[in-house]
Description:
Layout: E1 23-24, H1 40-51, E2 53-58, E3 61-67, H2 68-74, E4 78-84, E5 89-97, H3 98-105, E6 116-121, E7 126-130, H4 131-134, E8 139-145, E9 165-168, E10 185-190, H5 193-196, H6 209-221, E11 226-227, E12 230-231, H7 244-247, H8 250-258, H9 276-289
Parallel strand pairs: 2-10
Antiparallel strand pairs: 1-4, 2-3, 4-5, 5-8, 6-7, 6-10, 8-9, 11-12
Helix pairs in contact: 6-9
Amino acid sequence: xxxxxxxxxxxxxxxxxxxxxxxxxxxxxxxxxxxxxxxxxxxxxxxxxxxxxxxxxxxxxxxxxxxxxxxxxxxxxxxxxxxxxxxxxxxxxxxxxxxxxxxxxxxxxxxxxxxxxxxxxxxxxxxxxxxxxxxxxxxxxxxxxxxxxxxxxxxxxxxxxxxxxxxxxxxxxxxxxxxxxxxxxxxxxxxxxxxxxxxxxxxxxxxxxxxxxxxxxxxxxxxxxxxxxxxxxxxxxxxxxxxxxxxxxxxxxxxxxxxxxxxxxxxxxxxxxxxxxxxxxxxxxxxxxxxxxxxxxxx
Length: 299
């Protein structure tokens, strides 16, 4: 459940949608995905997308920068047909399995499924994913849109989602709250969350309400928002110079989180699934963090 005050994207319900299993691609296969010849400019865009570098980092240091074309030499590309919640319909992509990409980019790193990862995008999102989620069956890195030449624009801002877009193939993986789909993906880093975002961590006991709220913020909000200047850059900072709970009434904050469009037109999705106890935990987290303000003077 991504909490955000200005998050990009809109969660779409797709319980009634059926998805198709991923189908391995081949260089000479026929079918809808490969039925028409692309114009020269579209071919150039496809080549550029395949050549764009995906950066792999460990502990803040770059260890590799690899193109889709190079990755495809050791990882068989897969055509994935699935319901895309951003487009609210079935889409087809040329992809690479995320687990295989991770293993290639972090070759030599032990216990990858037990690691923590940070996916960063061109627009400033920082999406933390645990290893279990990264290695979950159905996760793919799309590097070509097979329906629209040069990528179909995505989101309310109508942006190009390339060069890399995390998608999920299975019909139970279409909820953006539980299976985020960062697009314009630029880098993947293996690092402990606390090492990358230490100023977001509360000091109270791990079984406190604030820590429960921190867990929600970590999994769902940090994609777009920061606390103490650490986190995503798409949405506003929520703790500096004033905490959100210092200038907005608590009940208004909770109502806004549940359904922001009742207040104003916004790119923030509704979070109607959040329970009152979860909202209270988030408020407890914000309330504790207002007493723990820290900032990097250089930022």
